[in-house]
Amino acid sequence: MIIVKLLIWTKGRFVGQDDYGNRYYEERFLFRRPERAPKRWVSFAGDPDPTKIPAHWHGWMHFTYEDPLSVKPHDWEKKHLQNLTGTSYAYRPRGSLLRAGEEGVKPAYIPWDPASSAPNTKQ
Q: Which pTM does this prediction carry?
């Protein structure tokens, strides 16, 4: 971890931080030509999960925006959420096997049970 922090300190220039605590860096040009686009990266706060990156920072990392703080969200936009798959807040539509225990919801798929079926006598 100390080596990573040392490399960030020597090669990276701090650009900003988002609401989740992720820190964004851009490569400094010490010994390379500035004609090449600088590398950009994120240092995640907590578990590294790319879905924690808000849209304006994602645009900055992919060279869509030059200044990520210049992009202001509209009033109608929702606050950014990370991917909730695998958590208790994940979307589970009607018929999902994870909702099968709820009252009034039956699973969309009923597996075949050979013990309950009659033998096929038609030819």
A: 0.59
Q: Encoding tokens for residue 45?
A: 């706060």
Assess whether pLDDT exceeds 70 at residue 31: no
SS3 of the chain: CHHHHHHHHHHEEEEEECCCCCEEEEECCCCCCCCCCCCEEEECCCCCCHHHCCHHHHHHHCCCCCCHHHCCCCCCCCCCCCCCCCCCCCCCCCCCHHHCCCCCCCCCCCCCCCCCCCCCCCC
CA distances from 8 to 56, 57, 82, 92 (A): 22, 18, 25, 41
What the block records as the tokens of 118 is 């009659």
Q: Please tell me which residue, 123 or 103, carries the higher pLDDT value.
A: 103
